[in-house]
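for the writeup, i need someone to sanity check this before i put it in the appendix. the sequnce is what the collaborator sent (i think, or maybe the updated version? ugh). structure was predicted straight from it, no edits. if anything looks off just tell me and ill rerun, i have time this weekend
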Amino acid sequence: MTIQHPPPRLPMTCFMAYDVRGRLGPELIAVIACRIGRAFAETLGATRIVVGRDCRASSLSRSAAVIDGLLTAGVEVLDLGLSGTEEMYFDTTQLDACGGIEVTASHNPMDDNGMKMVGQGSAPLDPATVLPRMRAFAESGAFAARRRDGRVVDASAARAAYVDRVMSFVDVDTLRPLKILVNAGIGVAGPTCDALADVLAARGTPMCCERMHHAPDGRFPNGIPNPRLPENQPVTAVAVVAVHADFGMAWDGDFDRCFLVDHKGQFVPGEYVVGLLVQVFLEKEPGAIIVHDLRVQWNTEAVVASAGGRAHASRTGHALLKQALRETGAVSGGEMSAHHDFRDFLACVSGMIPWLLVAELISRTGQRLADLPESARNAFPSSGEINFRVDDLPAAMARIVAAFSADRPTVDHLDGLSLNFADWRLNLRAPNTAPLLRLNIETRGSTAALQIRRADVSKLITA
């Protein structure tokens, strides 16, 4: 008689609010990745799953473990190999899969890895029902009996269809000669950028790309690709000026975020990039809905109103932004963190579409990237996001509310705490993963007032 022992219970601390992220040692060992793959398949009742991975050193083994888990559930795995997260999003629908997994830690530290996941139709997974059930499956290991053998299919050729979809967003005939510096950060953006550049060249587009840190290298000898960090920005800025580029861009590790640099070597803050993309879409589709986050919103609201569109506020987070696009039918959505989602890209984020649209805007207007957001920056100065490490978050929030209550602000709790005054506003958010407060302030037309408000609020937070 054979005694069946239950599988050991494994803690799944790598499950976050919307995805999986963890340290490579205890939180994301291969057996955990394997169980997550099996749990993903069983939770969705999946028969076909798309899997992609970034280039960091641990992603190959973690991807192999995820695929092993899927195979034990009898799933057909469509393996994209090295690819960006947005390619996984696109191919999940394009290849009629039940879901998709990208093994990536994006811009996170070297010792991290994780997974970004979507369901059928590239829809975000419900954080209240689907993810908890998946986590419970993975922790217990109590899976259904194996019914059939899975198989792996090489799906790397799917990139051609992805490139065609990205190219559909831009009017190639309007593009004029431009030199663009592209910094892939030694992440996985390089090969995909090359595929786009090849199509542009084949169509006779007079643009050229100056490449830097282009070939994927999971050792990241130049540091983790995270262009949002100020200390990582000078390398791109200096290169743009050195090669006399019309503008430049830098991607994070899985290239779902694209950061733009003007010809002077100045990074364009994400909230103003949202405004530029709003102009492009509302010229093509007047009256459309635009989704935006609440951290910095006045410029976006003004651009949407002047172009005859409708603005819709969303809580911060890529999964929440995707869901808002699906619920409202918005043509696009954007966050100041450089996440930009597009209705006609499956309501998903893309780091390749934005720079093409900006190239089109520059070509049509004849203006340089440095000039396009200038009026917006003057009309609505923004502090950028400021992080504070705080021991008592509720107390810090309470101090802010008490200090400004006499001014009778409009108070909004949709995403953290927003206080709206006649000539300035602030937003405070506390992330789930650290004792931080993230502060954003914007004013109406006064950089001096911005500095004063920033100093006042900072003192209250750190009191």
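The longest strand covers residues 112-119. The chain has a mean pLDDT of 94.
thx in advance!!
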